[in-house]
Amino acid sequence: MGRALIEPTSRLLNHSELFYAPGDRALARDLFRAIGCRVLDPQEEEGPADLGPAAGPYLIVFVDPESTDLIDNVLYASEAPPAQWRFEQALRARIGEDPSLGAAFDAYREVFVGQPQAMTHLGLSMSESELVAAIGGIRSDAALAGRVAIRGPFRPGEPGSVDPRVVQGFLQTDIVSTGLLLAGQQIELQVRLDRGASDRGAFDRGPRGGFDE
Ligand SMILES: [Fe+2]
User: Fold this and answer.
1) Ligand 1: distance of its center to the CA of 44 in Å?
2) In the chain, what percentage of residues exceed pLDDT 90?
3) Do 173 and 90 belong together in one domain?
4) DSSP string, 74-124
């Protein structure tokens, strides 16, 4: 069951632009499909008539798999441009050579482990059964599992929960990023319990739903 918006509006969070590293296009596509999004790859399939030739470089990720809107409630993912990729490679090399910089980088990444809610992320809303399916899909795909860390889900009343209105699962990956791939991207999979929760109980199939801590 879909979630009713409070009122029609022309102001909404409508899209985000992400990059993937050279060679990671298929993995980026598979990640978003595992999350439950519909992914249109204009390089491999014919798109709708209104797609336009400029769409070629992009994976078009429909957060709602039933949607055909190319502009709202979508993510776009394309290959990191050479300037960014060169910068990232130079930075990665320097981190490997400089112990103090490497330690700072490790400390930064460690915060994502203990406090994922406090670190930068984008959030996708879904039902509990879709959250379960997303985590299971990532776990069962070796290529994704090696590049995506799963944290949570954090359920109300349990350690790590910060809001009784939501269940939060966090994915941290370097497959895509809205910024530097080196910093990675955290994606929150959120189930809102106070509005539109259609399948409470999906986590009751096992201890903590079988997720990572
Ligand atoms: Fe969040």
Assistant:
1) 33
2) 77
3) yes
4) EEEEEEPPHHHHHHHHHHHHHHHH-HHHHHHHHHHHHHHHH-GGGS--EEE
